[in-house]
Task: inverse folding
């Protein structure tokens, strides 16, 4: 059930993603053809470094507050006088840097991941309510959100990050919330589920919202047997007639006859701030037919469905106050069918005609990989759990088939650029022989298929950038491809083989550091020019600090986490070799007789200079007077 | 020079238990911290890639102020006290007097770099005592007491009191001591668990800050802060000069300064002064959030979690990046200025 289960709270506000954009074009990775203008902002149609070359990849919650609560018994409230948690702030943990949002590779920018993000609920005076680590996850269900002509922010799409909060710490203030008391008892192994739906992102400098967007959040219970990085939910898929509603999660609680639909990532909005579009009457119903013909665009007849209820989205601020989660009781007649008949989203015209805008997947089938983004070095194995469901229940003994997507040439900029980078765009997905995985894995009794992926050295197929991107498609019988999210594939970044040289020379690390220096001008402008050997040597300490962080540290270098372990070790070894030799440890002040060493040296110094100092003091009354010098202009 | 209220020295001298020194040392860490935003603002105003030698000098002083902060906090913990860093009021109002200061004395603000700033503020902050009037060890001399005291006197009073009152093994829990060696040497920052260590630790603060009474260089050959700043002001390096009656003169290499290489920050920028729906305001709010988070991290570090210090280093870099981003942004409605780093504490972030 994940985040749609009860109890849960919803919050909303803004987020900031200071996306770094020099790395948006794969051709900028070629050191040999890199031009300084690739670090400059876009000029007209010439993209250069795109819209934020100086970005630092920071991801931050901004002005987010809890808006609503749903208790164990299904009752909901948005009233702060009833439920203390409403109105409290959601932000990042204090005392540590905010986290990052980065892509796995320039040739796969469709599933940006959150790294090192820690979510915190706190009071206005800063007391801790709860805090947890956001498990690394890439966004999914990227879909159209903004409708209408007005697009001041230039990005009409939205997407969701679904994940868990781990290592949850509860503050004393949490005791003041009835909702949190209930939630705490559902937090197995110190985890909670989390969903973040984002939209309204600004590429432009309009409205003072550059690099910011809207965020709808849900925090719910977490159960061991459930997937971590997506909701074990039934799926509603948008049809051609719909203005949006591309992909939506929903669950149906049979015992209490309650339907919960998340429209937070799919409801159309008319502006980047989240004003719900007026789409007329919107109705949820269950199909009476064994299978719905989604190709049929004729009106839906009353006999074809049993109405569950209409979506009440008309109240001002509905989307931000509810995170778009719609909970409805299901009347008995519909309740008899919903366990094994498709859910329908209908648009109702003023004269009562119903059109099908979204439909549950065929036969209620769903399949999704949990750890869908993998980074492996040659010889390493990744294990990915793939879950199959039917009507929201785990589907045992279901064969899941896997195949490598054909090679692509992604990651170059739009064709309208009059001065594109000259480097060739590499092909992804090759060589096929470097990645090993079975063609089919059958789900176990719990509905899970464990896929084992092994990588060999791909031997630098892409030339100027390391490793390769592979996309593994997966499918189950009976689920048409158009009813799976288009990017439901397992993304693998397989690094090139590399032997750490002994000793490591500047010539070995220079190409790696130069590439980073080219791609992240925020480094060279404000911290250290990674293309300059002397500058890198001077800053060995801070670089060693960054390269030796844990991968979940916000300052882990490289920020994109795309470096093989061997190359990282080579850099570390080189940095250690250029560090000055450690000074001999100085003995601390001891209880035994004799002065501490530092002050003893001071005494010696005094003794040596006593005569000269005495003369100086006598001359000038003890104060030093600066010699006036004509100031340089 | 910094003129702190005499009463702080008097209270130190009158203290009858180590506990009474906690509050006084709390004032000391507030003072050590209070100069840091002043110096950092000047550094942030130096355009990236320009005036780097000046930047390095101020940076070297800031690093030592941070060390003094750590040392004083360690001493509080060693004496059984608890430093408080993440509270409103810890950060002084800018512009304004520094903590513990007498009324009418030096007012400091957050301003872009200039030679006048170096002379009127930086050198005032770091100016050493007059060595004739205040010899190294003796105290409470014969002449009528001056109306103010110096920070060096204050620390020396604390040292004397510790020597007089504290047991050889200090009461604080050694596990609370911070001795991170990523960025400070173990010679400078070490666990304080004994009386001698406390006295030695405080001596480092006085020595590095004010220098010696007799020479512009300290025992390690480093120029004391005052003289590093004077080099910036004069525009030349201070070097040994046998021909000079003082033994030194500002006749060394030119200290380059490009006045065009400084962003014209609006002094004492406050986030609330920036229009609500502007990028400048959002970045300024982000700066304040990061700064408050940093103070919260420092508080936790010195309140029993020494391992939290590494994470705060990362925040310092985040702060620098946002500060430099702000410095390049035009001030809304005042095109002759850019946006200064606000350094404001936001209680909603902390704790």
Result:
């Amino acid at each position: 059930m994940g985040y749609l289960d009860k109890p849960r709270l919803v919050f909303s506000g803004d987020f900031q993603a200071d996306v770094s954009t020099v790395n948006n074009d794969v051709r900028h990775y070629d050191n040999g053809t890199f031009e300084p203008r690739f670090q400059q902002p876009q000029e007209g149609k010439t993209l250069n470094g795109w819209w934020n070359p100086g970005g630092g990849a920071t991801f931050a919650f901004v002005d987010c507050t809890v808006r609503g609560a749903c208790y164990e018994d299904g009752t909901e409230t948005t009233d702060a006088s009833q439920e203390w948690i409403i109105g409290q702030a959601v932000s990042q943990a204090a005392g540590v840097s905010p986290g990052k949002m980065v892509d796995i590779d320039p040739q796969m920018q469709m599933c940006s991941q959150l790294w090192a993000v820690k979510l915190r609920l706190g009071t206005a005076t800063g007391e801790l309510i709860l805090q947890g680590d956001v498990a690394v996850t890439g966004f999914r269900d990227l879909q159209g959100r903004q409708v209408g002509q007005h697009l001041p922010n230039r990005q009409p799409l939205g997407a969701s990050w679904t994940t868990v909060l781990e290592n949850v710490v509860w503050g004393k203030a949490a005791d003041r919330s009835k909702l949190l008391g209930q939630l705490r008892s559902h937090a197995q192994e110190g985890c909670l589920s989390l969903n973040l739906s984002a939209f309204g992102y600004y590429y432009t400098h309009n409205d003072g919202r550059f690099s910011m967007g809207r965020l709808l959040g849900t925090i719910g219970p977490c159960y061991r047997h459930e997937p971590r990085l997506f909701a074990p939910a039934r799926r509603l898929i948008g049809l051609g007639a719909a203005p949006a509603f591309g992909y939506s999660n929903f669950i149906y609680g049979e015992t209490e006859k309650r339907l919960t639909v998340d429209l937070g990532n799919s409801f159309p909005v008319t502006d980047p701030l989240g004003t719900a579009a007026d789409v007329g009457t919107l109705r949820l119903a269950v199909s009476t037919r064994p299978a719905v013909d989604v190709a049929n665009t004729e009106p839906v007849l009353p006999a074809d469905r049993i109405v569950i209820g209409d979506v009440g989205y008309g109240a001002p601020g509905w989307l931000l106050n509810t995170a778009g989660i719609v909970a409805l009781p299901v009347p008995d007649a519909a309740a008899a069918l919903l366990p094994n008949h498709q859910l329908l989203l209908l648009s109702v015209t003023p004269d009562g005609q119903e059109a099908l805008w979204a439909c549950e997947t065929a036969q209620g089938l769903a399949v999704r990989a949990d750890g869908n983004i993998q980074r492996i070095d040659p010889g390493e194995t990744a294990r990915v759990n793939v879950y199959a469901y039917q009507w929201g229940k785990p589907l045992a003994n279901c064969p899941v088939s896997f195949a490598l997507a054909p090679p692509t040439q992604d990651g170059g900029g739009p064709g309208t650029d009059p001065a594109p980078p000259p480097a060739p765009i590499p092909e992804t997905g090759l060589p096929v022989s470097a990645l090993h995985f079975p063609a089919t894995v059958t789900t176990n009794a719990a509905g899970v298929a464990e896929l084992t992926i092994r990588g060999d050295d791909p031997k630098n197929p892409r030339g100027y950038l390391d490793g390769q991107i592979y996309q593994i498609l997966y499918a189950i019988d009976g689920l048409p491809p158009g009813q799976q999210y288009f990017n439901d594939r397992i993304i693998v970044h397989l690094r090139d083989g590399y032997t750490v040289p002994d000793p490591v020379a500047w010539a070995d690390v220079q190409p790696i550091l130069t590439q980073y220096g080219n791609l992240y001008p925020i480094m060279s402008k404000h911290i250290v020019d990674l293309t300059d050997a002397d500058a890198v040597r001077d800053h060995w300490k801070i670089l060693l600090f960054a390269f030796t962080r844990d991968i979940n540290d916000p300052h882990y270098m490289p920020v994109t986490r795309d470096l093989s372990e061997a190359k990282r070790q080579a850099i570390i070894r080189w940095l250690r070799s250029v560090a000055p030799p450690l000074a001999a440890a100085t003995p601390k002040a001891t209880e035994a007789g004799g002065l501490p060493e530092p002050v003893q040296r001071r005494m010696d110094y005094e003794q040596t200079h006593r005569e000269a100092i005495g003369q100086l003091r006598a001359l000038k009354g003890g104060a030093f007077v600066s010699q006036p010098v004509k100031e340089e202009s | 020079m910094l003129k702190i209220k005499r009463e702080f020295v008097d209270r130190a001298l009158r203290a009858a238990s180590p506990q009474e020194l906690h509050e006084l040392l709390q004032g000391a860490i507030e003072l050590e911290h209070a100069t840091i935003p002043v110096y950092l603002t000047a550094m942030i105003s130096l355009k990236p890639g320009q005036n780097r030698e000046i930047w390095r000098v101020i940076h070297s002083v800031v690093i030592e102020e941070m060390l003094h902060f750590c040392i004083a906090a360690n001493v509080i913990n060693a004496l059984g006290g608890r430093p408080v860093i993440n509270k409103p009021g810890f950060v002084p109002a800018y512009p304004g007097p520094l903590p513990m200061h007498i009324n009418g004395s030096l007012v400091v603000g957050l301003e872009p770099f200039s030679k006048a700033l170096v002379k009127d503020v930086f050198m005032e902050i770091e100016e050493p005592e007059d060595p004739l009037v205040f010899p190294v060890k003796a105290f409470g001399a014969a002449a009528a007491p001056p109306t103010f005291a110096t920070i060096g006197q204050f620390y020396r009073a604390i040292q004397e009191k510790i020597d007089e009152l504290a047991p050889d093994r200090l009461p604080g829990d050694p596990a609370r001591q911070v001795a991170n060696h990523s960025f400070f040497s173990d010679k400078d920052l070490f666990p304080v668990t004994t009386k001698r260590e406390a006295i030695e630790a405080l001596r480092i603060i006085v020595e590095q800050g004010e220098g010696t009474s007799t020479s512009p260089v300290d025992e390690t050959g480093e120029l004391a802060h005052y003289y590093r700043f004077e080099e910036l002001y004069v525009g030349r390096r201070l070097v040994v000069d046998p021909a000079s009656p003082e033994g030194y003169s500002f006749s060394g290499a030119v200290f380059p300064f490009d006045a065009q290489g400084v962003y014209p920050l609006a002094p004492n920028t406050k986030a609330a002064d920036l229009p609500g729906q502007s990028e400048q305001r959002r970045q300024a709010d982000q700066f304040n959030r990061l700064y408050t988070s940093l103070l919260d991290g420092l508080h936790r570090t010195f309140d029993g979690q020494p391992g939290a210090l590494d994470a705060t280093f990362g925040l310092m870099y985040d702060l620098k990046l946002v500060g430099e981003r702000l410095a390049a942004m035009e001030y809304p409605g005042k095109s002759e200025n850019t946006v200064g780093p606000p350094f404001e504490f936001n209680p909603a972030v902390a704790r």
